[in-house]
Specification:
The chain contains 2 helices and 5 strands. By secondary structure, the protein is an alpha/beta fold.
C-alpha cells in the first residue's frame, strides 16, 4: 500500500494513532469474489510511506499553490517518524519509507484502481 503522507500544522500524536489504526484495518483488497473485503494483513502486504507536504496545497487564490498549512520540518519530521513506527507496531506489517523532504521518483501501478483520501481531521 502506497501512502502519501502530508502532515499539517494542526496534526498531532492523536492523528497519527488514528491514521495508523485505520490504515492497518482498511479493507481495500479484493477477495475471491473481487469484493473489497481484505485488509493488508490478509493479503500479506506491506506499506510504502512517502512524505508529501504538497498534499496541503491551497489553490484558491492565484496560480501559485500555497503550502502554508503544511507543517514545518521541525514538527513534521518527528510526526513522520512516529507514523512509521506506529504503523509497523499496529499493523504488524513491514513499513518502508522514503527520505523525508528528498526529491524521489516513486512509480505506482494502481491495480484496481483504488485511491482513497483520508483526513484525520474529518473522521466522521
Amino acid at each position: 500500500m502506497l501512502i502519501l503522507l502530508g502532515i499539517e500544522e494542526a496534526d498531532n500524536e492523536e492523528d497519527i494513532e488514528w491514521l495508523c489504526t485505520k490504515l492497518s484495518k482498511l479493507r481495500i483488497f479484493g477477495d475471491d469474489n473481487d469484493s473489497m473485503n481484505l485488509d493488508i494483513n490478509q493479503v500479506e502486504g506491506s506499506f510504502l510511506v512517502v512524505s508529501q507536504f504538497t498534499l496541503h496545497a491551497l489553490t484558491k487564490k492565484g496560480n501559485r499553490p500555497s503550502f502554508i498549512r503544511a507543517a514545518r520540518p521541525e514538527q513534521a519530521i518527528p510526526l513522520y517518524e512516529m507514523f512509521l513506527k506506529r504503523l509497523a507496531e499496529i499493523s504488524g506489517r513491514e513499513v518502508q519509507s522514503g527520505e523525508f523532504g528528498a526529491m524521489m521518483a516513486v512509480e505506482l501501478l494502481n491495480d484496481g484502481p483504488v485511491t482513497i483520501i483520508m483526513d484525520s481531521k474529518r473522521r466522521e
